[in-house]
């Protein structure tokens, strides 16, 4: 948020989001996957996601988003940049968050392997519940096609298919 004062008036302006983001698929070796239910869209399940901030690399954004959305320190586990990205159309109801005319986002995929399902601390206002589920069940429950792609890649990295 930016506050601009001038001519005796105070104006509050929201900074636009950068149309580059990360998706971090948090999973265990036996392919249990962490899903988060969105606070603003009940019934919409997803992995950790988030836009890059100014001057931030996708890797740094992945670490930050994991910490913000789950309370977990990605640096304590194996965070892998899958060297993949998806480009998708931003939902019309979320386009106001981006600069005028921006309609697409580039999402970088990461995997974070944990030794076992761990309890997480949800970001207030962002997510309301979490569950650890089998990767195939997760592929049925997530709302984003890019999340399904990430789950498919996870399976393939373990010699499995959806």
Condensed summary:
This protein is of the alpha+beta class and 162 residues long.
Describe this structure in words.
By secondary structure, the chain is an alpha+beta fold. It has one domain (16-157): Alpha-Beta Complex (Nucleoside Triphosphate Pyrophosphohydrolase). Helices cover 20% and strands 39% of the residues. The protein has three helices and nine strands; from the N terminus they run E-E-E-E-E-E-H-E-E-E-H-H. It has helices at 58-70, 135-141, 145-157, and strands spanning 2-6, 9-13, 20-28, 32-38, 45-46, 48-51, 78-89, 104-114, 127-134. The strands form three sheets. The protein has a four-stranded mixed sheet, sandwiched between helices. It has a three-stranded antiparallel sheet with strand order 5-4-9. Strands 1-2 form a two-stranded antiparallel ribbon. Strand 1 and strand 2 form a beta hairpin. The longest helix has 13 residues, at 58-70.
């Amino acid at each position: 948020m930016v506050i601009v004062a001038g001519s005796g008036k105070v104006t509050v302006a929201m900074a636009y989001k950068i149309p580059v983001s990360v998706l971090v698929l948090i999973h265990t070796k036996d392919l249990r996957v962490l899903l988060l239910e969105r606070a603003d869209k009940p019934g919409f399940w997803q992995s950790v996601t988030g836009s890059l901030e100014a001057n931030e690399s996708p890797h740094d954004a992945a670490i930050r988003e994991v910490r913000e959305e789950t309370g977990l320190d990605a640096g304590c586990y194996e965070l892998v940049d899958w060297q993949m990205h998806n480009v998708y159309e931003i939902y019309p109801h979320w386009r106001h968050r981006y600069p005028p005319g921006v309609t697409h986002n580039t999402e970088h995929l990461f995997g974070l392997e944990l030794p076992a399902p761990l309890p997480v601390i949800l970001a207030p206002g962002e997510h309301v519940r979490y569950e650890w589920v089998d990767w195939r069940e997760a592929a049925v429950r997530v709302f984003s096609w890019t999340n399904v792609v990430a789950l498919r890649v996870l399976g393939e990295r373990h010699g499995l298919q959806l």
